[in-house]
Amino acid sequence: MLLCSITNLPKYTLSHNSFLIMFNLLNFQPHSLPNAVQALYKFDNDWQISVVSGSDGKLYGNLDDGTYEVAVFRPNGNMTEDVSGWNTKQQVSAMMWILSQL
Fold it and tell me: I want to staple 22 with a disulfide (CB 3.0 to 4.6 A). Which of 1, 18, 55, 96 is the partner?
């Protein structure tokens, strides 16, 4: 439910460039899959986000298209419902902002 509500934010919110500040907090490292990257970020409130993207079609995000797959983890370490795929930088940033406010 949480990830679903985050991914259904109004378009005007998602297009606001100031949200990119949150995306820039991500430190992408090589993923275990070839031609892919992953960033993990833990918020002060112990929520965590995993953002991945690749170029071989094995993830729900494509580096060449600038889209990302997102997983959200609760403070107890359990992942929310499912991953959210094909998110733009603005959408990832909006998700991060909301998670930072929980």
Answer: 96
